[in-house]
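[audit] Reproducing an earlier prediction to check determinism. Same input, same settings, fresh worker. If the tokens differ from the archived copy the diff job will pick it up downstream; this log only records the rerun itself.
[audit] input (159 residues):
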Amino acid sequence: MGEDPAQREWAAWRFPTQANPHIARAEIEALRAALPLRAYEQEMEARFIEEVTGALWKYGQIEALRVASTGELARLVVAIDPAVSAHASSDETGIIGCGVDRRSPAHGYVLADASGTYSPDRWARAAIALYRSLAADCIVAEANQGGEMVAFTLKTVDP
């Protein structure tokens, strides 16, 4: 016997953008050219991307080690590892929000991941938005590739 649809808590459907008759094909092609491949596949083709090609850590590994926070976090930071370009084959700019456990400072927690293939303006805006949403203490950046450039870009976007 099938499940009664009224008893389900949720349902999901996938509809690629091409299925929408009100969006011009030329607009879809322009987005294909403008978006990084993974973003296009996920956002326009309605594909759930479980693994990132070339990723050092796979989702299964992360999930196997996931633990709940005590809720007592100290020193909330947003960290940026900027990429040097922003086209389809570029590395992602890493942007994460994390905190240290107040009771056990040896334990840190990743609270959010806003990484993506961004222009400098876009990664700065993403980092600042994450900083605000977490009420973080500061934004830190990798010094060997970015350093002063990251500080300048952030201050240009939001003094």
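[audit] rerun output stored. Observation attached for the diff report: Strands lie at 73-81, 94-101, 108-113, 138-141.
[audit] end
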